[in-house]
Each structure stands twice: as structure tokens, then as C-alpha cells.
Design brief:
Radius of gyration: 19 Å
Structural class: alpha+beta
Helix content: 40-55%
Number of strands: 5
Shape: globular
Length: about 170
């Protein structure tokens, strides 16, 4: 009697994996603009941009344009349950997630004094927001992994004009 149960479990696991893959594929093929955050961003953010080339690359762009640096706590990044499980099994994947691209999310700089209003306005409009770090007076990105260890990236993110998406020596003109 155990064999049919094993087959049922295997089929169940296959269906769950397919649903997760479909969810990720749909997010990639048909990203949904975060229009519900318009009012919160207009009212509270001092800067905002889309994340399409990877958090590492787009945050570095925002920092360069603002003349500052940033600290990001990797364990605060909002990940799908499947991605969270994968990172728990292989910590090295966090760097890939940060530099991966195609996030189609909003990166916003919200002053601490406006943080509560930002969260309230976002929630009132049905938008989920997550604080992932802070801007700093020093330049550059400080990525902090679980346990407080520095996290280094082989590349910041996708480079449309470089020799390839994984070329850490490619130059950017933005």
C-alpha cells in the first residue's frame, strides 16, 4: 500500500513545482507595474526608479546620481517562498538574486521621517513595501549577508551594452 502513496506524493510535488514555475514565468513574461504605489511615492520618496537590471546595478546607479552609498541587509529582501528555500539551501544564490535583473519592482529612497507615512499610504492602496537597508554618506554599496558578513557580487547586474550579462569588466554609460 505504500507505493501508490509515494506516487501520489511525487505527483503532488510535481504539481507544486509546476505552479511555482508558472508563477515565476508569469512574473517574468507579464510584469505588473506597481501603479498602486504612485501616491505613496509622490508624497514621500525623494528618489525612485524601476529595478530591471538587478538590485545591485540599479541601486548603484541611484547612489551615484545622489552622491551617496547604501547598505543593504540581504536577509530583508522580499523573496518568493521558492527563492527563499533555494537561498537557504545555497547561500551563494543571494548574490545571483541581487545581480540578476528582470525584477520589475520599484526601488525608492524614503527619508526616515516619512517612512511611516509611506508605509501607510502604500498599505492603503494595496501595495506591499519592504525596507531593505539605508543610504549612507559614504559612497559605494555595502551588502550584508546573514550573520553580518559582507556579500560580494561578481557583477552588479545586467549590462545591455557590454559583452554579455556576466562580464564584470563591462562599462556603463549611465
Amino acid at each position: 500500500g505504500r507505493e501508490p502513496m509515494g506516487g501520489d506524493l511525487r505527483q503532488h510535488d510535481r504539481h507544486q513545482r509546476l505552479r511555482r514555475e508558472q508563477h515565476l514565468l508569469q512574473r517574468y513574461l507579464r510584469p505588473k507595474p506597481r501603479l498602486e504605489l504612485r501616491e505613496a511615492l509622490r508624497s514621500c520618496a525623494s528618489a525612485a526608479m524601476d529595478l530591471s537590471d538587478g538590485l545591485g546595478k540599479d541601486l548603484a546607479r541611484m547612489c551615484r546620481a545622489s552622491g551617496c552609498g547604501a547598505r543593504v541587509e540581504a536577509n530583508t529582501l522580499p523573496l518568493s517562498p521558492g527563492a527563499r528555500k533555494a537561498v537557504e539551501a545555497n547561500n551563494g544564490l543571494m548574490a545571483d538574486i541581487i545581480s540578476g535583473g528582470d525584477d520589475y519592482e520599484i526601488l525608492a529612497a524614503v527619508p526616515a521621517a516619512k517612512g511611516q507615512d509611506f508605509r501607510r499610504l502604500a498599505a492603503a492602496s494595496g501595495g506591499a513595501v519592504t525596507e531593505i537597508g539605508a543610504f549612507e554618506a559614504s559612497t559605494g554599496l555595502r551588502l550584508i549577508a546573514d550573520g553580518g558578513q559582507p556579500l560580494t557580487l561578481d557583477r552588479e547586474g545586467f549590462d545591455h551594452f557590454g559583452t554579455g550579462p556576466s562580464d564584470p569588466t563591462s562599462q556603463e554609460n549611465t
